[in-house]
UniProtKB/TrEMBL annotation:
<dbReference type="InterPro" id="IPR016181">
    <property type="entry name" value="Acyl_CoA_acyltransferase"/>
</dbReference>
<feature type="domain" description="N-acetyltransferase">
    <location>
        <begin position="1"/>
        <end position="149"/>
    </location>
</feature>
<dbReference type="Pfam" id="PF13527">
    <property type="entry name" value="Acetyltransf_9"/>
</dbReference>
<dbReference type="InterPro" id="IPR051554">
    <property type="entry name" value="Acetyltransferase_Eis"/>
</dbReference>
<protein>
    <submittedName>
        <fullName>N-acetyltransferase</fullName>
    </submittedName>
</protein>
<dbReference type="InterPro" id="IPR000182">
    <property type="entry name" value="GNAT_dom"/>
</dbReference>
Amino acid sequence: MDTRPFTADDAEAVDEVHRRAFDGRTEESRIVQRVHDADEAVVSLVAVENDRVVGHVLFSPVSVRTHGEPVELVGLAPVGVLPEHQNEGVGSALVRRGLLACRESAVDAVVVLGDPAYYSRFGFEQASEYGLGNEYGADDGFRVKLLTDGALDDVDGTVSYRPEFRQ
């Protein structure tokens, strides 16, 4: 399996990945499409096996107020893998490669709303311990991973996702 940046030619396959990964729901695939249409994807990667897209991950900007220097935050969402390729490390590979790409793009921290046990293996910690909340009111599942030491020292408040997540 290889990972590579998303291209417009991947759109249909990525739509299928998210629809099938999320039991037929279409919201995740619509978010991906809207973020790409708005040209707001910071990192968007696909996992490819035998010339077939089997997974996808998206990182897009989020905002939070700061008391000091501006901080570059992104949200990880969604990540999806075709059901027949789940539990093979595809999602983990996408998350790891995506975090590396975020670091290379000068992102200071990444937030995610998801399973704490899953995301803790990538170094995500409880976001509320850094003074961060989210517009969905979730606590335990809202996690953050620092990519720059001290990046959240002067940051607190509610993290807001892009409008494409609310449409």
